Amino acid sequence: GAVVSQHPSWVICKSGTSVKIECRSLDFQATTMFWYRQFPKQSLMLMATSNEGSKATYEQGVEKDKFLINHASLTLSTLTVTSAHPEDSSFYICSARDITSGGPTGELFFGEGSRLTVL
Amino acid sequence: DAKTTQPPSMDCAEGRAANLPCNHSTISGNEYVYWYRQIHSQGPQYIIHGLKNNETNEMASLIITEDRKSSTLILPHATLRDTAVYYCIVRVNQAGTALIFGKGTTLSVSS
After folding, report:
1. Nearest chain A Cα distance for residue B26, angstroms
2. pLDDT tens-digit readout, A66-85
3. Which of A92, A97, A119, B63 is 20 to 30 A from B53 via CA?
């Protein structure tokens, strides 16, 4: 299947700093990517929908000024956690849909996830 | 809120078939049933999806009832590596539509 890659896989940062996480579709193009976060022993929670060339759409309760999303190309979306605090420590996961494969029933592919720890 | 109901946990012996049920009684006519799994500390992995017909691929089989109100994911010969959280999700198949995850079923395969 198609490959979605995230970088970094894990990151530790000090409180108050900003952290950028990249999500790349390696062998396909994606006009839409989705960002999720997952706290320990909980399910994935959708944070935002990232659209190439336009502003992201955020889910209710997600601060758009804190979680900056940029989708500058058909293969790259970035999530920047600004002024990170310990409560932002989580597992961040992106997903993307191949716009060229399988017609309307194409599945979403997920990255390996990025674990953020804020000290 | 997720539109599906799954048992929180199931056990299966290695080599036996694992049958994971999912109820989606409010599914709409244009919604597909998707199954993903998440192995600890990894991103979710696509397994299979279907609309109304039963589906089979190299990983699993998906059985959807005629009224589409429930489905069963079948792993024919479970291995230890199949231990994971399995998510059943219903979703309209449109490009901008995300997957909304429920709590899933934790499948534990033991030898």
Report:
1. 20
2. 999 998 888 999 999 999 99
3. A97
